Amino acid sequence: MAIQLFHADTDEQIAATFAVMQQLRPHLQRSEYGAQIRSLMASDGLRLLALADGEVVRAVAAYRVMNMLYCGRALFIDDLVSDEHARSLGYGAQLIARLRDEAQTLGCSEVQLISRVTREQAHRFYFREGFGIECFHFRSKLA
């Protein structure tokens, strides 16, 4: 089977990423997913990068480019997930490599992401991919 990396831009392509994205974000509902992604694309410049092995999406990353005072232009990965049935096959590493290339093309100085403290397997992957822990991310939920 052929590996294909592509930006999910059409409604069909966006829908094809749902099953994998829901593994990371189980609260998502299929009936609302396309509209949520389209809304984030319009308001925040969100992009979806998908990796398909043959006809099946096996990994997906949601990301955006942000300009920040402390680091300038950065590619920020909101979500990155490989299909739980196809982990350790290099799909995540291929997404990261493509995102790094894209960040350079877009004039970004770095690639950033946030990962919950409980996701130890993901942390091992990020360390292997050259990411380091630089700060704490504080959060205060509002009612």
TrEMBL record:
Which organism is this entry from? Answer: Dyella halodurans
- EC number(s) per UniProt? 2.3.1.-
Q: Which residues cross the membrane?
A: none
> Which Gene Ontology MF annotations are present?
acyltransferase activity
Q: What class of enzyme is it?
A: transferase
Q: Which UniProt keywords apply?
A: Acyltransferase, Transferase
- Pfam families with a match to the protein in the record: Acetyltransf_1
Entry protein name: GNAT family N-acetyltransferase
**All residue ranges annotated as the N-acetyltransferase domain in the record:** 4-143
PROSITE patterns attached to this UniProt entry: GNAT (PS51186)
